[in-house]
Amino acid sequence: TYVVADNCIKCKYMDCVEVCPVDCFYEGENTLVIHPDECIDCGVCEPECPAEAILPDTDPEAENWLAMNTKYAEIWPNITVQGTPPSDADEFNGVKGKYAKFFN
Ligand code: SF4
Ligand code: F3S
């Protein structure tokens, strides 16, 4: 599977949802997650994310995000169409430790 990691938080550009062939993104207030059981590992979302927030589970960083993606994919609603990103998304692109600071 692929996972959404820290840098999506408060950026939430949503380019990823437009390209996913199986519509396996789920939407929270500040971030999206991928449902690990639905993702078919196609990889097309990874280069589409302007925040480089999507990682394959082979990435050492992904381990930290898999449980979080799994948990919230079961709770949050499915998203299949790109909405409007936050107006201050670019200001948060690259800010470290957003999960600890801003996650709801
Ligand atoms: Fe969707 Fe493919 Fe990304 Fe998985 S890797 S979330 S199937 S676009
Ligand atoms: Fe987040 Fe990147 Fe998608 S910022 S919403 S993972 S395009």
Automatic annotation (TrEMBL):
Domain 4Fe-4S ferredoxin-type: start-end pairs: 1-29, 30-59
Alphabetical list of InterPro entries matching this protein: 4Fe4S_Fe-S-bd, 4Fe4S_Fe_S_CS, 7Fe_ferredoxin, Fd_C, FdxA, RnfB_subfamily
Coiled-coil portions: none
Keyword Ribosomal protein listed: no
Domain of life of the source: Bacteria
UniProt cross-references to Gene3D superfamilies, sorted A to Z: 3.30.70.20
Cofactor: [4Fe-4S] cluster; [3Fe-4S] cluster
UniProt xrefs under SUPFAM superfamilies: 4Fe-4S ferredoxins
Keyword entries, A-Z: 3Fe-4S, 4Fe-4S, Electron transport, Iron, Iron-sulfur, Metal-binding, Repeat, Transport
Keyword Electron transport on entry: yes
Function, in words: Ferredoxins are iron-sulfur proteins that transfer electrons in a wide variety of metabolic reactions.
Classification via PANTHER family: FERREDOXIN (PTHR42859:SF2), OXIDOREDUCTASE (PTHR42859)
NCBIfam families per the UniProt record, alphabetical: FdxA_Protbact
Name used for this protein in its record: Ferredoxin
The species this protein was found in: Kiloniella antarctica
